[in-house]
Amino acid sequence: MTQRRDQLGRRGEALAEAFLKRKGYEILERNWKGKSGEIDIIAKHKKTLVFAEVKTRATEKFGAPVEAVDEHKQEHIVRVANEYLQKEKKNKNVVRFDVISIRLKAGSLFERLRGPEIDHIEGAFDA
Q: Does residue 105 register a pLDDT over 90?
């Protein structure tokens, strides 16, 4: 991953974390790493354990952010989530998989001042 893409991803994850906190989510983990990969954000909302994948784009040159969470990526997220659930002994929790799509504004000063466009898709896919 290039340094620029890594910085973009980290910025998006920070924005997503702040967004979720404003919505009343408790952030449990950020960039949790297991043997099979990483989960961007693990949070608790009411009685639900939420695994959130964050996709950030500065342009739509490669498509909308949410389009990057294809079937293969979903399977990967579920595999890592199962590893987390087993390791943390949280198998009895209600689980949900969300996608947070972030579009950073480019172009005119007015567009940049409006800030990022954040779409939170709750229950974006099932295990």
A: no
Spatial CA neighbour of 38 closest among 53, 19, 16: 53
Distances (CA, A) of 103 to 11, 38, 45, 89: 11, 22, 24, 35
Q: And the tokens for 53?
A: 């994948």
This prediction has a pTM of 0.87
Query: In this structure, are residues 62 and 88 in contact, taking their beta carbons and an 8 Å threshold?
Result: no
Host domain of residue 120? 3-125
Helix count and strand count (H, E) for the chain = 3, 5
DSSP SS3 for 58: coil
How many domains, the chain? 1
Q: Output the domain CATH number for residue 71.
A: 3.40.1350.10
Tokens of 28: 């449990």
> pLDDT tens, 52-63?
999 988 767 767
